[in-house]
Amino acid sequence: MRACEAYIDLIMRSIDGETTAQEEVALHAHLFRCEACRTLYRTYMEIDQLIQNTEEAPPAHLTAAVMHTIRNEKAQAQPKHWIQRYRFTMIAAVAAIVILVSATVGGKHMKLSEGIVADNTEAEAAVAVPETAAEFRCGDVAQGDDGVEEAVTEGALPEAPALAEEVPENGTLQSAGGTQSAEQVDASVNETEETGESAFFPIEYLEMMEQAGYYGDALLIADVDVSALQNMFPEANEVLLENGESAFEVSKEDVRILIEEKAFTVVAEYQSDTENEVYWIILEG
Amino acid sequence: MVYNLVLRMVGSREDAFDLAQETFIKAWHAISLFQFDSKFSTWLCRIASNTCIDFLRKERKRKMISLTVLDDEDAQYEIPVADSRMDPAEITQERWDRQVVYDALQSLPAEYRTVLSLRAIEDMSYEEIGDVLDLKQGTVKSRIARAREKLRRELCGNFSLNHTSDKEKGGMR
Question: Is the complex ipTM higher than 0.90?
Fold first, then answer.
């Protein structure tokens, strides 16, 4: 039994919800009388239902994969913007602060009696100006001169990404947020000088990371060699840096465990504003 | 929505994952171009559709053996080889039925299964499908009609679709 050719188009449009009310009335009046068309109508409805049943939930990790890619792209865009656009501004700003602070401290030194030299030394420690742009970026520079700090951090430069939080186990990292008081900065600088460790991630590594196309978080570590690191992270991806050294891409979770176990010393940490679950680990020296 | 559309268009879950991801990334890049003159879902599906068409074109060039089907006026894509076979040990009747329908869908030309998926799964109107695929409504309607009929013929061996009558049970089996 064949369906009526004249009604096939109407059957299709009815299933697709593309008919008028009048057409629906006419169609159903016909379906009431014509078994072949009624069968075809139901068949097509069932086919659509079968197609709907083939719908699948997207893979669970699709969202994470998309977000990971977007974060990486954002991370690549932002540090590039940072380093390339403001590198010379930052260096110039640091140089200006050095000059300003040196002049201020020098003037004080000349005017003050020898009894106040201790204060002067303290002031020098407080403004122990970082030598690199990376140090400056960590927000630790302009504590010696509030006016300059405001001009640099709020005007000439974009907001600085925060350095890593302290790692209490070994105390090698210090928080270097801009809200630190001068006393806190003094303390951190002194502590750094005492332990011989630096809280600042060297700019040359940031530049090499940028050249290698990486803009995420990084750790500079000591007390292990390449083979020891490879043993710790057998699945780490190795990336050759411009200076011939290697960086190793490892999961943060693995690193945290080894930091707790004091398997190596964290010399410095660079924390980007991305939410990477991996670190680049670079061996100091 | 995007994943299922892409999966229907390319047939392979692995490719569908990559292309769905690519679609979302493209949408993220182009979000400022979204004009609010259509539904966001339509706009997103259009990106997905174009991404898949590009992919299928490249695949067609890449493959030495063309599986292109040209049995209709404007068929232009190849049939991908489905890679979705299930583990026989896990097959239930329901899953088997789904797989049969899935395979039958995949045997259709890509432009047919695309319109049918947008209609049956995404519940889009002819106008919306036309917007997504840049087709006239008449073309959308005729493709859906042909696709349904082809699918009916494909499935009639597995499901008693064309034997169902009023006097029989309401279901298909």
Answer: no
